[in-house]
Here is the input.
Amino acid sequence: MEIFYGATLGIWTIGLLFAWGIWLWFPTVKSTTLAHDVSFSVLIPVRNEVQNLPGLLYDLANQSKRPAEVWILDDSSTDGTAELVRAWQTNFPVPLHLWHSDRPENSPISPKKYALTALMPQLQTDWIVTTDGDCRVSPNWLETLAGQTPNRVFLAGPISFLPQKKAWVWAQIIELASLQLTAAVTLLMKIPTMCSAANMAFQRATFPGYAGNAHIASGDDEFLMHAYQAQFPGQVAWVKSPHALVLTQAQTSWSGFIAQRKRWASKWNRYTSWFPRVLAVFVFLVNVATLSALVTGDYHWLFLRWSVEIGALATFLAFFGQKKWIAQIPIVQIFYPLYVVYFGLIAQRKSTYVWKGRQWD
Here is the structure.
């Protein structure tokens, strides 16, 4: 047993040191006015976001680089979302379109994938940018993305959660920082693993669609990134800039948290690329090894792993102006192995969950 967790945690720690070094070595991108001739369509799939959408619309109306147009893709909202968008259309500085999904309720196609695919023929801009109705973006968000479009076909941007004082939320912020660091480093190494549709941009003319994964509720972002990488290796990039950060709402209920993590876990074994699958299995084994070391009391391996993790995550959080969460990292580290093992196991069996009022399996 000691050989198992010693070797596993040792390899993980070396990998973390390497990833930390890659993050520090890779330069921060700059906002630029040189790419202002790139035209953006911003697509925002929503379902009952009437409370959150005004904040995002305000941010988009005040961008240093204005989009050519903004599309609200309404997925059968019942809370007045459509009326809200119509009220904003009058004085919005760029065309603000409201598109109602005609996806049948019994359709096997994911709502987001259906919306993006159905709308694509109506768009004429160079690039498509996606985010979610509950997000907030910085004034230089689109300008920063525009500066990275030359010689690229797909851009993945950083995300985090809107800050709250609740322990439930700051634990999710730290967890997401760990996932984002992995996403950033693997993309910087040209072996992409994960990204988020809350902060994603892709070249319209080369949109590959969702053949083979349209029925999976999640993955409108990662499957698309992997398709671009397969077709255009080396032209997929992660945008390392605090100006590119998008903040979204954390899950505030246990049921919502469980459903979201089931949705995330449901796609890991559907990847066609080998590296994300291997990485997912290794992360699971690392956390099994961590629990084993805790049970046997062999804490020096844990100290080694956790020390490097704290340093890497602290650097990442500080880069995005989130230093106040650094002191909470050790607390999350104690409980995180149980969480990873639990969701890693339930991902192996067929289970249903409810997301945005719909049941998925």
In short: The chain has a mean pLDDT of 85.
